[in-house]
Each structure stands twice: as structure tokens, then as C-alpha cells.
Amino acid sequence: MDINRAFVGLGGLFGAAGIAAYAAAAHSASGHMATIAPILSIHAPAFLALAILARMSKAAYFGGLVLVLGLLFFIGDLAARDYTGDRLFAFAAPLGGSLLILGWLIVAATAFRGLDFKSHR
What is the DSSP string of 24-77? Predict the structure, then answer.
């Protein structure tokens, strides 16, 4: 089976970061880690599935890239608020959230043959 190894690696990293965020939330008064943990944890197995789908579909690959950017901006902004007391940059979290929604819509579009970009190989 041909897989996208970058997405497998990201799935593993997001899973590990999700568990670390749960641990941080248990020892922190801040609410951001409690928000970050489930978001990372639900995206970890999704990236493992995208590792396979992205090799068959350019649309799924592009959707995965959009999801990565969305996670980096959204999670990055919330984590920055906890650790530095300041935002990543203005509107980073809303931009990240919007990219997450867009990324999932792009992935969903791969279900429709006419909207797919054909093979990514």
C-alpha cells in the first residue's frame, strides 16, 4: 500500500501533542490546553486516513495541507496565549478555524468524482 509518509508523521505528532496537551490541561489553570487537546486528538487519526487517501487524490492531499495550516494557526494561537500571554498574530485563531473548516470541506469534496483532481501520484 502506497502512503503519504508526511501525513503519517503528522498524525503521530498531532496524537502525541494531543496527549501532552491533555497532561498540560490537568496541571494548568488555563483553559486553552483543554481546548487544544481534543482538537489535536481528533485530527491525529484523520491524518492517518489522509495518508492513504492523499496518495489517490490531489484534492485530499490539498485538503490535508489546508488542515495542517489551520491547525498550526488555531492551535499555535491558543498555545501562544498560554505560554507567552500574547497572540500568535491578530486573527490567527479565526483564520486557523476557517482553514480547518475549508480543509474538511475539500476532503469531503473528494467523495464527488467531478470535484476530484485525479490521482496525485
Answer: HHHT-S-SHHHHHHHHHHHHHHHHHHHHHHHHH-HHHHHHHHHHHHHHHHHHHH
Question: Mind listing the pLDDT tens digit for each residue in 20-55?
Answer: 999 999 987 778 999 999 999 999 999 999 999 998
Residue 49: C-alpha distances to residues 76, 81, 103 (Å): 23, 31, 14
CB 4 within 8 A of CB 54: yes
As a whole number of angstroms, the distance between CA 118 and CA 54 comes to 11
Q: Which residue has the cell 483553559?
A: 31
Positions in the chain whose pLDDT score sits under 50 = 120-121
Name residue 113's amino acid: R
CB 30 within 8 A of CB 79: no
Residues 50 and 23: their CA atoms lie apart, in Å, by 27
d(CA 107, CA 60): 5
pTM given for the model: 0.88
